[in-house]
């Protein structure tokens, strides 16, 4: 089923209990688009065939680069922001229909699973036997996909939430830990401990995760490495490429290229 990026979808009941899985192909306009915060009983796989999608759940931000998918369990509030001209699919899965985790995670998407999702979303024939076979194969293949990770842990702690919102609005902000500590009325050491306690990451690593999420989203939408480097406040393109390669094992162009060729297997924790 093909829909504009507007939820709830027209003429599609994603929580229909008679359907173990429902695939929706979404048209994204020439500008960035958002599905506001919502929830549904079925779990949801957000799959990007082109462009990128950022999923926001209460515990963090998850990036969906091309040829990868983010799993969102049922009844979890979430919103989705897609880059301009993205080609994305939402697969809604009945609770218990597949052996999937009860937490958000990123899956590599194999070429077989990709084609199953596309075929199911484009199915217009009233062929229950064929659709049933596609769904059974999809539900069997999805749990076998490698679980990867590229997300930004977000805390509900008010001071960290304030910092996260500020950095999301201005990723190029290079304020030091000491400067942030002063703004939220904490000592530098207290803020450092609070970040680790709430996110499991040091402040520097946490901010780097944000940069990686923004970088992959913008690169996937067609921005140049030079543009992304400047938007993130790096002093040089070389410094940005070095950070990216150190974190993800490959420079930006090779990283995105290998994802496209290998169905997400370039993803690294």
Automatic annotation (TrEMBL):
Pfam families: HTH_18 (PF12833). Residues 161-258 form the HTH araC/xylS-type domain. Keywords: DNA-binding, Repressor, Transcription, Transcription regulation. It comes from the Bacteria. Gene3D superfamilies: Homeodomain-like. The keyword Repressor applies. InterPro entries: Homeodomain-like_sf, HTH_AraC, RmlC_Cupin_sf. GO terms for molecular function: DNA-binding transcription factor activity; sequence-specific DNA binding. The keyword Transmembrane helix does not apply. CDD domains: cupin_NimR-like_N. PROSITE patterns: HTH_ARAC_FAMILY_2. Signal peptide: none annotated. SUPFAM superfamilies: Homeodomain-like, RmlC-like cupins. This is AraC family transcriptional regulator. The lineage of its organism: Bacteria, Pseudomonadati, Pseudomonadota, Alphaproteobacteria, Hyphomicrobiales.
